[in-house]
Amino acid sequence: MLLTRVRRLAREPNGAFSPAGSEPDGAFPTDPEALGEAEAEVVEHGGGALRRIAVGRAARSGFTAFLDGIQRTGVLLYHGPVPIVYAYVAAVIRGRDDGLGGRLRTLVREEREALFFPFRLVPPSALAGCGATAEQMVDTSLAEAAPVPIFPPLLYAWAAQRVATFREEVEAWAAERWCRQDAAAGHLLVDGSLTLSGELAACERAVGVIKSHHTRFFDGDDARTLLSLEEGERTSVFRPGTQQFTPVYSWYLRLRSPAGRGALWGLVRVEAPATPATLRRADEISGWLLAETAPVALPDPRWDRMLYPIRDCEEYLRSRAPRL
Amino acid sequence: MSSTNPIGRVVGTERKPNTPHEFHFWTGGDSSVGIGTLVKVCVEEPRPVTVYGIVVDGASYTDLETPLHDYIGLDGDPAGGFAAPTARPEIRLYTAAVLRHEPAEPLQPVPAGPVHLLSDGDVAVALRMDAYARPGGTAIPVGLYAAGGQESPIYLDADFLLGPEAAHLNITGVSGLATKTSAVLFLLASIFEHLPAEKGSVAALCFNVKGPDLLFLDQPAELSEADRAMYARLGVPAAPFRSVRYYAPYKPDGYNLNTLRTNPALAENVEPLVWGLEQILKFAEVLLTREDVDAKADALIEFIRERVVGRRWNDGTIVEHTVRTFQDLEAWFDDVLTTCEQNDWSSWKTHHVATIRKVRNRLLNLSTRAKGLVSNDAMSSDLPWGAFEDRTVYVIDVANVEPEAQDLIFARAITEARERLERNDLGVDHLIVFVDELNKYAPSDGLETYVRKMLLDVSERGRYLGLVLFSAQQFRSQVHKRVVGNAGTGMYGRMDMDELATPGYAVLSPATKSKLATLAKGELMVRHPHFAQPIFLRFPRPAVLAGRDGVRRFAPAHDLPFEDAVARQLRRLDPRISVNEVKDLIAGREEAEVLRALHATQQKRPAGVLAYFQSCLKKRVPRDVVPFMAERMRRVEVPEDPYA
Questions:
Q1: Domain boundaries defined on chain A
Q2: CB proximity list for B395: less than 8 A, separation 6 or greater
Q3: What is the ipTM of this complex?
Q4: Cβ of B89 under 8 Å from any chain A Cβ?
Q5: Can you give the pLDDT at residue B644?
Q6: What's the CA angle centered on A146, arms A144 and A151, to 5 degrees?
Q7: Given an 8 Å threshold on Cβ–Cβ distance, is A96 in contact with B73?
Q8: Which of B86, B88, B90, B92 should one mutate to test binding to chain A, selecting the residue with the greatest count of A CBs within 10 A?
Q9: B95 to chain A, minimum CA–CA distance in Å?
Q10: Fold for domain B8-117?
Q11: How far apart are CA B616 and CA B596, in angstroms?
Q12: Which terminus of chain B has fewer Cβ atoms in its 10 Å neighbourhood, N or C?
C-alpha cells in the first residue's frame, strides 16, 4: 500500500525525508487568498542572509503581564433579509505575581458589546427597542455611495470584518493603558502583533508573539534557514516590510523540537519595537519565551506555539463570554 | 446578611446542578474548608434566602484534560526539567449536603451565591439547636465543632437523648483509641451537669467489661490546658464524678472481690455483689441452656418460682419448708424425691420424677456455675434498689467474671431497674445504662438469648420509662439492627474500612467515610434527631483517671488468705478493728460459717461491727483439755503366742 511505503520512506536513515507528524488543524490555510508575502530586511549582524542563532532558555522569565483578546459573533436577528450581527469583544491583561506562587490575576479587563448592520438597509431607530446606545450600533456599509447588496453572507462577512476591528480596538485600549504604567510594571507579552497600536509597537516593554504563519517574508536559503531552526534557536532580527506606519523588529524562534513533526511545529514569530535595544535584547527575550513553554498549554490544539499564560487569558475570557 | 468574608461561591452546572438537598461551591486553595465543615449560602435576590450545609465531598482539578498532558509537559520526568513560571489554576470544588433552609418554604434548589463559614449562632441555627440550646432549654453539650479557627459548642437535646421524644445512644469505633468510653464518660458528666432540674433525677449504671476501664471514675485525671479550655467552653466541670459506687462479685473463693479496684485506699465505696436464690431464680434461663430446659423442666421451674420460693410449703412433703436459699431448695427437692420414693410415685404434682431430678441438678448447679456471685445461703449484697441517688454512677465490675455470670448480672440488673422504673421505685427518674461490647450481648445473628431480648426491650420501650441505653461496640453492623436502630443518637469514632463498606454506611459519602477511617482520638461524628446530617466534633479527654493509669497509681491488692480477707472486709466497715482481733475470732471455724457472719455484718452495717460479727458466729463451747495421764493407763500385756 502506498501509505505504508511512504511512511517507511520517512524512517530511512540519512534520507531526505522526515515524518510530518500530525499537524494541528488550521496549520495550513486552504484558501490561497488568506496567504500573503512581504519584503523583509535583516537588520542584525549587518544584514545579509538570515542566520540561525542558538539562544538558551532563561532561568526566569521577565514577562509579568500577558494580553489576549476574544470575540464572539452571531446573527441574533434578521430585519427582513438583513442579518443583525451581535458581537461581544473583550481583552484582558493578566499579571503574574510571584507572591501568588506563579498564579495569574486580572490587571486590566475590557468588555464591549455592539450590533453590526448596514444602516442603509436597517435604520438604527428600528433597534431602539433593545436599548442599544449609538456607540453600540455599528454601520457595516462600506462607503456612502457603494451599493449594499441584499445578500446575507456578504453582509455577514462585512460585519465580521468590522467586529475584528472592534476587538483590536479593545485590545489596543487595554495595551495602551498598560504601556502608560511605569517600568516597574515589567514586560508585557501580547498574543499577536504589536501593530495593533502605534503606542504599543513603540513600547520598550512589550513583545508580541504571532503563532500563525500567513505571510511569507523569506524564500530560498533564508526560508530553509528559518524552517530548519532547532528547538531554542532563533533567526536574525529583521524588519518586516508590511509595517510601514508602526515599524517593528521581528525574528523567528523555535519553541519546541520539530523532530518527527512538521516544519512549522513550535515555530513563532516574535515582534518587538524597532529600536537598537531590541537588537541587543533579542536573545534575552527569546530566552524568556522559551521559559514560558512550561507548563505546556495542553489541551489547546496549538500547544506547540501557544504559551501557557496566553492560554490562561483565553480561558479567562471564555469563562466570561456570553454563549451565543 | 452575613458579616464574614465569603470563602467560596456556589456554582451549578448542567452536569453538577444544585438541588434542594445538595449544592456545590468552589473555594480558594488556601481556604480552611474541609470535609465536615459547616457553611452557609446567603443571597438577597430575588428573595432573601440562607441555606446551611455541611461539606460531604470535595474534588480538585486543573485545566489539564488528561494525565498524559502533564506527562508530555514534563517530558516524562516527575521532577520536571525546569521550573514553570506560571502555576496552573487548581480548583477546589466541594459538595455540601443541605442542613437547613431559611425560610423553609418554598423549598427550592440552592441558589448561586457567596459561601461563608458559620459563627456560633449560625451553627445553632444550622443544626436546629436554636430550639433547645437557650436559657431554660434542654441542651446537653457534647463537644466542639471546629473550623476556620473558631470552635462552636454542639448540644444534644435531652428530650431526644434521655426520652421521652427519642432516647438511647449508640457509639461505634475501633478498639484501642479509648474514644468510645471517653465519649460516654464525658457525655455522662455533661448530662449530670446540664440536665435541667425539671427533667428529674438521673443516675448511671455502668458495666465494666474490660480490664480497669471504669474503675477510677472518682479519681481526677491530669488534663492538658487545651482539654481544660474545652471543658470551660462547654460548661462542664473538669472534675471526676462526685458520687460513684462500685460493685463486684467475689472470686470463686468467696471472700476476695473479683475486681482490680482492691487498693485499700479506694476500698471505701466498693461493695460485694452477691445474689441468692430469690434474686436469680427468675433469671435461671440465662444460665440454663435450651438443652437444660425443655418444656417440662420449664414448667417445674415456673412452679417452684411461683409457689415454692419465699413461701411456706407443706403440701405433699414430709416436712414443712420455707425456701429462701439454695440450701433450702436442696432440702425441699430431697423431701419431694423421698416422698416419691416412699410412695412409689412416678410423678409428683404432674411433674415426672425424672424431670424433678433433672431440674434439681440444674438449679442446684447454678451456684457452682456462678460461684462468687451466687450464694448458697441467705447472703445477698445488692445494688441499692429503690435508693438510687441523683447524679451517681453505679459501676458493676464484670470484667473478670465468667460469661454466664456476666449475662446473669446484665439480665438481673437491667430487668430490676426496668421493673422499678415502671413502678417509679428506683430512686431516680432516669437511669442511663452503659453497656460496652454490644457485639457480644446483642449480636445481629446467633441464638436468641435472654440478654439480647432484654436489650431489645430496653431499646424499644425504655424511653417511656426513663431507662436509657448507652451502648458501644466495635462493629455496628454486627449488632442487632433494632437495638442500634432505636438509638436516637449515634456516635462514630475511627472506623475500620471493612466496617464502613457494609450497607449501614451507604448513606455516607466516600469522603466522609475516608474521614471516619482516619479520625483522631477525641474526634467523633455525631448523628442526632435534630441534625439533618452527621456532624464531626471534638470532645475533651474525660476528667477521670484512665483505667491503666489508675491501676498504676492504685495497685490492686493481692488476694489474701481467708483470715486476712475477712479482716480486710470488716476493717472496711470499721477501720479501728485490728486484724489480729478478727483472726482470733475466726480461728478454727469453718469458712462457710465465717462467711455467713461476714455477709450478715456487711448487710446489716451495724454500729459495732466486730461485736455484731461475733454475734453471728456460732457460740463456742469451751473445750476441756484432758491432761495426758500415761501413768493411769493400763498396760496391755501381749502374750508371745496369741493363740496359746
A1: 37-62+186-293, 69-183
A2: B206, B207, B208, B214, B215, B217, B244, B245, B246, B247
A3: 0.72
A4: yes
A5: 46
A6: 120
A7: no
A8: B86
A9: 21
A10: Thrombin, subunit H (2.40.10)
A11: 8
A12: C
Contacts of B500 (CB under 8 A, 6+ apart): B508, B513, B516, B517
Positions of chain A with pLDDT lower than 70, given as ranges: 20-27, 98-100, 243-244
Interface check B61 vs A, CB under 8 A:
no
For residue B30, the chain A residues in CB contact (below 8 A) are: none
The three grid cell numbers given for residue B640, joined into one nine-digit string = 508371745
What helix, strand, coil percent values describe chain B, rounded to 5? 35, 20, 45
Closest CB from B73, B80, B86 relative to A102? B86
* DSSP SS3 for A190: strand
Q: By CB neighbour count within 10 A (0-12 exposed, 13-18 middle, 19+ buried), where does A27 fall?
A: middle
Domain residue spans in chain B? 8-117, 151-236+391-549, 278-369, 560-644
pLDDT digits (tens, 9 = 90+) for A31-88: 777 788 888 999 998 888 999 999 988 889 999 999 999 999 999 889 989 999 999 9
Domain at B151-236+391-549: CATH architecture: 3-Layer(aba) Sandwich (3.40)
Mean pLDDT of B196-210: 94
Judge contact between A96 and A102, C-beta under 8 A: yes
Classify residue A252 as exposed, middle or buried by CB count within 10 Å of its CB (0-12, 13-18, 19+).
Answer: buried
Nearest CA in chain B to A256: B73
* A65 shares contact with chain B (CB less than 8 Å): no
- Grid cell in block for residue A89: 469583544
Q: Which of B234, B240, B199, B233 is nearest to B218 (CA)?
A: B240
B72–A299 CB contact, under 8 Å: no
* E strands in B387-534: 393-397, 430-435, 467-473, 489-492, 523-527
Residue B395 sits at the vertex; the CA angle it makes with B391 and B400, to the nearest 5 degrees, is 170
- Residues A111-135: tens digit of each pLDDT: 999 999 999 899 999 888 888 898 8
| Yes or no, beta carbons of A292 and B73 under 8 Å apart | no
Q: Is B481 at the interface with chain A, CB within 8 A? A: no
Residue to mutate among A66, A106, A308, with most B CBs inside 10 A, is A308
| Residue A308 touches chain B, beta carbons under 8 Å | yes
Q: What single letter denotes the amino acid at residue B514?
A: S
Nearest to A296 among B66, B72, B87 (CB): B72
Number of H helices, E strands in chain B: 22, 22
Cross-chain Cβ contact A298/B84 below 8 Å: no
